[in-house]
C-alpha cells in the first residue's frame, strides 16, 4: 500500500475553529498524534473493564455460590447497566462536565470500584461493581467521542482513526481478559484480591496516560460553556453531577443484585433516551435533523448486530464447552479460550489493515460509504453464523473440529470491523457537536439492548440439562442457521434502503 496516501488532506478551516484546534486537525499523515494517547488510555481502561468482566461469572458461581443460570442473568444485567450508563455519561458530558472531566471522573470511579473489589471481593462485591458501572459510563463513550473531535468535518481519515483506536480497545481486552482471570485462578498463588487489584492498577495507568497527555488536546473536550451562567454556577452544576452519580450508587447496587429489575429498567431507559434525542433533534435545522435521524437508523440496526454478535459470551461459550474438539492445527487448546480470545486477536491483527484499506480505497474513490459498510457487516455476520451452523457437517458424535469454529470467528471479526468502529465514527459525523456525547451514548445504549436480546436469543437455543451432545449440537447450530438468515435479510434491507439513508446523511459519507 502506498505510504504517502492521504498525506495532503486540506479541508477549509471553519470560522469558529481556534488556531490551536486548527493545528491539531491539520495534521499530516494518516493519524493525528493525539490519537495514540487516547488509544493508550482506552487500551488500559479496557484492560481493567474486560479484566473485571472476565472474572465476573466465575466469581459469582465459585465465590458467591450462585447457580449458572443466576450468574449469567447477573452477568447480563451488569453488561446492560454498563452500556446504559454510557448514555447518561455522554449526556452529562455534553451538557455539564465536558469530555475530559467526565473521563477523569469515570476513571476515578472505576479505580475506586476495582480497589473496593480487591479489598474484600466477597463482602463488597456489589458495591464495587456499582462503582465500576457508573465509572465506565462516564469514561467509555467520552473517550470515543474525543477521537472523533480530532478530525474536521469531511476528513476522510476519521474511519481509519477509529479502526486503529479499536485495535487498542482489543489489545486491552485481550490482555485484561486473560491476565486477570489467570491471576485469580493460578494454582497455589492465585487470588481474587490480587486480580481485582490489577484491574485497578491498570486503570490508574490508563488515567495517568490521559492526565499527562491531555494538554496536547488543546480545547478538545473542555467543559461546555453553560449558557449565560457564571463560572461559579457552572462549577456548582459539575459538583451536582459528581454528587448525583454517587447518590445513585445504592440504587444501582439494588438493581444489579436483583436481576429481575433489569427488564423494567431496560423498558424505561430506552424510550426515555429516544425521547430525549427526539426532543433535542427538534432544536436543529432540517438538514441536521435528517442526519440525526440517519444516526438513529444506524443505532437501531446495531441492536440486531450486537444481539447476534454477543452470542459469544452466552450460547457460543456453552457450545464451545461441550461440542468442540481441542485441537487447532496440531496445537491443543481449550475451545473456550478460542471462544474468548480469538475475536480480540483477529481485531488487533486486522483493524489497522482494514483502516488502511479504507484510506487506500478512498484515494482511488472506490471506498464504500458507511451504509454499504454496515450492509456488508450484516452479510459477513450472516456468513459467520452460516459457518457456525456448518460445524454440524463436520461433527463426529456431536463434537466438531475447532478450526471451523475459529474460521467463523475470523469472519465475524471482519463483520465487526465493518460496523463497530464505523458506528463510533458515524456518531461523531452525523450529530451536531453539542450532541456528540449523547449520540455516542445512544450508540452504546444499543449495545446494552443488543446484550439483552442476545441473552434471550441464546436461552431460546439451549436445551434442558441431560440432552445428548448430538442433540445440543443440533439445537445450537439450528439457532445459528436462523441467525444467518436474519443477518442476511438485515444486510439486504440495509443495502436496499441505502439510497434513502444516503439522502438523510447529506454530505456525510
Ligand atoms: N468491544 C468493543 C468495546 O469494548 C465494542 C463494545 C460494544 O459496543 N458493544 O469497546
Write the topology of this structure.
Layout: H1 19-25, H2 33-62, H3 68-97, H4 99-119, H5 125-148, H6 158-185, H7 192-213, H8 231-247, H9 249-257, H10 261-281, H11 286-309, H12 315-323, E1 327-328, E2 331-332, H13 335-363, H14 370-390, H15 402-417, H16 420-430, H17 436-461, H18 469-496, H19 498-505
Antiparallel strand pairs: 1-2
Helix pairs in contact: 2-3, 2-5, 2-6, 2-7, 3-4, 3-5, 3-9, 3-10, 3-17, 4-5, 4-7, 5-9, 5-16, 5-17, 6-7, 6-13, 6-16, 10-17, 11-14, 11-16, 11-17, 11-19, 12-13, 12-18, 13-15, 14-15, 14-18, 16-17, 17-18
Bound molecules: glutamine.
Q: Structural class of the secondary elements?
A: mainly alpha
First-to-last CA distance: 23 Å
Largest sheet: 2 strands, antiparallel
Number of domains: 1
Strand tally: 2
Helix content: over 70%
What is the CATH C level class, in words? Mainly Alpha
Superfamily at the CATH H level? MFS general substrate transporter like domains
Overall average pLDDT:
90
Architecture (CATH level 2) name: Up-down Bundle
- Radius of gyration in whole Å, from Cα? 22 Å
Helix and strand run: HHHHHHHHHHHHEEHHHHHHH
Q: What does this protein look like?
A:
This protein has 509 residues and is mostly helical. The chain has one domain: Growth Hormone, Chain: A (Up-down Bundle), CATH 1.20.1250. It contains 19 helices and 2 strands. It has helices spanning 19-25, 33-62, 68-97, 99-119, 125-148, 158-185, 192-213, 231-247, 249-257, 261-281, 286-309, 315-323, 335-363, 370-390, 402-417, 420-430, 436-461, 469-496, 498-505; strands at residues 327-328, 331-332. Strand 1 and strand 2 form a beta hairpin. Mean pLDDT is 90; it is low at 1-6. The protein binds glutamine (GLN). Glutamine is lined by residues 46, 169, 306, 420, 444, 447. Glutamine binds at residues 46, 169, 306, 420, 444, 447.
